[in-house]
Design brief:
The complex is a heterodimer. Chain A has 13 helices and two strands. Chain A is an all-alpha fold. In chain B, β1 and β2 form a beta hairpin. The chains are: A mainly alpha, B alpha+beta. The interface between A and B is medium-sized, with 19 and 24 residues. Bound molecules: adenosine-5'-diphosphate (ADP) and magnesium ion (MG).
Chain lengths: ~290, ~350
């Protein structure tokens, strides 16, 4: 006897899964198909149907130095955010794991930022890091002009990087703390008996044993920095100053909705999609191959 | 090699006290077994000695030095855990050598000692494997090797054999005792298995609900159990204990039956518990008038001996007979030598000592 429910009535079964299928189709497959269509066609300047142009749009994208600059910025952004967000969360989790009272409340408060929409994060960070009114305005009193994300590209990049990291730290923290608390306690105690101090135990045992979780978080953080940084940038820097924070996802938006060049934007989003799919595949492979001890 | 002194040690988790004031002294080089049922506080005591658990009150001294405030690594103890607690991402060699690595022993010296220990515990060809690639018995050996290589002053074992199958358990038990006989390192071994306890111990500590019931050699504990609890816990099968009432200075009655016991200066009507070992109850052909008769309802043949199980005076009892005897189900008259009878106070559960001299004078 099978335990799972089976439907004889195909219509009933279809009715049950239809809403879900509809959602997936309308908000995922249809737009994806539409983008794929635009990516290989061109809209004539004076109306008429789209013309098929093959890989012409992609050629135009890859010939553009600005595009490659946005790729570079995105990669730097991904590496930077992931390093900061995972690294900081790891340190916090390692210390929180050492018998902290009320860690439930802790976990809840740490997780909250992840639930905050990126646009709200951006707004908050715009206030906090505003060069003349924000919390950081103080350093401009000491050294005038040291911090100004509106003019200095590096400052702007740091601003969005911190915003994105802040949003992810709590999420990473929750996963890492849960993983740490699932490590067998006696294994850590055995190391204590073997003479390893607190830091040594963290480095020799806890961090290596967290590898599966760390790999998972790496994947989530990189993907999130590629995709979810849009709202953050839209609210804070608009890709500027001087394209310093022009990430791939924001460039797609500008090219498509500001310059109205759907074809170019669609080609870029196809590339971004391929990149993310590729990353996911690679990381799952690595996770499966390398990161199993049991 | 160090002696261990435990003085008035208590342990509370929150408001619940689980260890209630232990006073124990283990001699240098002694093999001490702490025996008790699950949940009685054995692991807690061992972990307080190791430094993995804080001591709520009292003090513990190792080699004359009070260790209450010392980190585990400063106490000179090595511990073997029930679930092995190996480092899953390290090879067998790295597992065994980790303590040396932490201590900063040079690599060449380290490898030499790992190889040496690996040979001595029979892990020769397995040094490059990961724990996941080993059997339960081999993992247990790695855990042993990890303890041995440190040449500690004290070995602590927390039920190290519980996860092994019966054959392996006996084999490892023998190896642990041989190791101790060779090296003479003070060892504290925790178990709930009375066979393990009897075979391994120089001295036994029987623990019950966070209190010491008895301390003594296995022989003392077996032949003169200090309480009804110890009597019912030690021995395989354990002692039969039947509730009874004193009918005179040297007679007790239960369920309409009578039994003669050594003189204990008993007061008539006092409530007692009568204990006798399964091997001390001898089936007889001729029942004494009012003598004990067990109602046997199950016979277990163990090859070398036979166990007859049944009821006597309202309690479950076991009678052990030699192989080849043919007693079956049904009433079984028993003869129990007065010298083989143990009496316990019904209230306190404590052993009542015979008063041979006073009784003879009276
Ligand atoms: N960390 C803990 N928190 C609360 N109670 C505990 C903790 N560890 C053990 N106990 C309690 O202490 C008692 C003794 O436990 P333990 O020493 O592990 O028993 P044993 O090893 O003899 O089976 C048990 O009742 C157990 O529930
Ligand atoms: Mg235990």
């Amino acid at each position: 006897m099978q335990k799972r429910a089976t439907f004889r009535n195909l219509w009933l079964a279809s009715a049950f899964i239809a809403p879900q299928l509809l959602l997936v189709f309308v908000f995922f497959y249809w737009p994806t198909a539409q983008a794929a269509y635009w990516a290989v066609t061109l809209e004539p300047a004076f109306g008429g149907g789209n013309q098929f142009v093959g890989l012409e749009n992609f050629r135009a994208v890859f010939a553009d130095a600005n595009y490659w600059a946005s790729v570079g910025a995105s990669l730097l952004f991904a590496v930077g955010c992931t390093a900061v967000a995972v690294g900081a969360a790891l340190v916090l989790a390692l210390f929180a794991d050492r018998g902290l009272r009320g860690h439930r409340l802790y976990r809840f408060t740490f997780f909250l930022p992840y639930a905050v929409p990126a646009a709200a994060v951006g707004l908050t960070f715009r206030f906090i890091f505003s060069p003349d009114a924000g919390l950081l305005a103080g350093i401009n009193h000491v050294v005038p002009g040291l911090w100004n994300p509106a003019l200095d590209g590096n400052d702007a990049f740091v601003l969005v990087l911190l915003g994105q990291s802040w949003k992810m730290i709590g999420y990473n923290f929750v996963f890492l703390l849960a993983a740490l608390q699932n490590l067998p306690r006696t294994t850590i105690e055995a190391a204590a008996m073997d003479g390893a101090g607190v830091l040594r135990r963290m480095w020799d045992l806890q961090v290596p044993l967290l590898t599966p979780t760390l790999f998972f978080l790496l994947m989530v953080n990189i993907t999130d920095s590629f995709v979810d940084s849009f709202a953050l940038i839209d609210v804070t820097t608009h890709g500027g100053p001087a394209r310093a924070t022009m990430l791939m996802v924001y460039k797609i938006y500008l090219d498509g909705f500001e310059s109205k060049d759907y074809s170019l934007a669609a080609a870029q989003s196809m590339v971004l999609m391929a990149l993310i799919i590729g990353l996911t595949v690679i990381q799952f492979r690595v996770v499966e191959r390398r990161v199993h001890y049991r | 090699m160090s002696d261990i002194a435990i003085r008035g040690v208590r342990k509370s988790y929150g408001r619940i006290e689980t260890v209630h004031g232990l006073d124990l002294a283990f001699g240098a080089g002694e093999f001490v077994v702490i025996l008790g049922p699950s949940g009685c506080g054995k692991s807690t005591l061992l972990r307080m000695i190791a430094g993995l658990e804080s001591i709520t009150a009292g003090e513990i001294a190792i080699g004359g030095r009070v260790v209450n405030r010392l980190e585990p690594r400063e106490r000179g103890c090595a511990m073997v855990f029930q679930n092995y607690a190996l480092y899953p991402h390290m090879t067998v060699a790295e597992n065994i050598g980790y303590a040396l690595k932490v201590a900063g022993v040079p690599k060449a010296e380290r490898l030499r000692r790992i190889a040496e220990v690996g040979r001595s515990i029979g892990l020769d060809g397995l040094l490059d494997r990961r724990p996941a690639q080993l059997s339960g018995g081999q993992r247990q050996r790695v855990a042993m090797g990890r303890a041995i290589i440190r040449e500690p002053k004290v070995f602590l074992f927390d039920e190290p054999l519980s996860n092994l199958d019966a054959t392996l358990r006996v084999q490892m038990r023998i190896e642990i005792r041989r190791l101790h006989d060779r090296q003479g390192v003070t060892s504290v071994f925790v178990t709930h298995d009375q066979t393990e306890a009897m075979t391994l111990a120089d001295r036994l500590v029987v623990l019950n609900a966070g209190r010491v019931e008895q301390v003594g050699t296995p022989e003392e504990v077996y032949h003169r159990p200090a309480s009804r609890f110890v009597a019912g816990f030690v021995g395989s099968p354990p002692m039969n204990v039947v509730d009874a009432t004193a009918a005179g200075p040297d007679t007790v009655t239960f369920g309409g039956l009578q039994l003669t016991v050594p003189p204990h200066g008993l007061e008539r009507g006092a409530r007692l518990a009568v204990g006798f070992r399964p091997e001390d109850a001898v089936p007889t052909a001729q029942a004494a008038p009012d003598g004990p008769v067990a109602a046997i309802d199950l016979v277990e043949d163990l090859g070398a001996l036979r166990l007859l199980r049944g009821r006597l005076g309202g309690a479950d009892v076991v009678v052990q007979t030699a192989a080849g005897t043919r007693h079956g189900r049904g009433p079984l008259p028993l003869q129990i030598a007065p010298s083989a009878i143990h009496l316990f106070d019904a209230e306190t559960g404590l052993r009542l000592a015979p008063r041979a001299v006073r009784a003879a004078a009276a």
